Amino acid sequence: MEGGSGLGTYQYGLTTGPTGEDAIEKADGSGITMWTTVGGSIGYAHNWNAQFQTNIMGSILLASGSNDLLGALGATAYNAANHSVASGGINTYWNVSKTFWTGPEFYLNYRKNFEGDSGTEFRGEWVGHFNLF
Predict the structure, then answer these.
(1) What does the alpha-carbon distance between residue 35 and residue 49 come to, in Å, rounded to a whole number?
(2) Which pLDDT tens digit goes with each residue over 8-32?
(3) C-alpha distances in angstroms, 105 versus 23, 27, 98?
(4) pTM of the full structure
(5) 101 and 77 Cβ atoms separated by less than 8 Å
């Protein structure tokens, strides 16, 4: 487990979306301002036998805004930014061989922005992974 100021590798781009930046130039041009975020994830893996594995995982991101961010982005972009994002998922993988696994994944995601709008997404998919070496 890690923590501390500046530790945001896996949170990059999550506040204002995939095309936004988390570091924003201040409206008066005096420097940059950044979102303050806190996030975490947890998971559990269970090996049923040598061929089957199930994983359960969850994550959360919480962001706090500021007047500097509101001034730099404007009300529309600021209000659309993520205030909280939570995700949970489960998958089961079948190890077909030493170099190939496949199986279903299911995720439930929740998002709330600074304006108070929220939404959920359910995603199910069949995935696979092949190692060449």
Answers:
(1) 44
(2) 555 555 666 554 566 778 888 888 8
(3) 33, 43, 20
(4) 0.74
(5) no
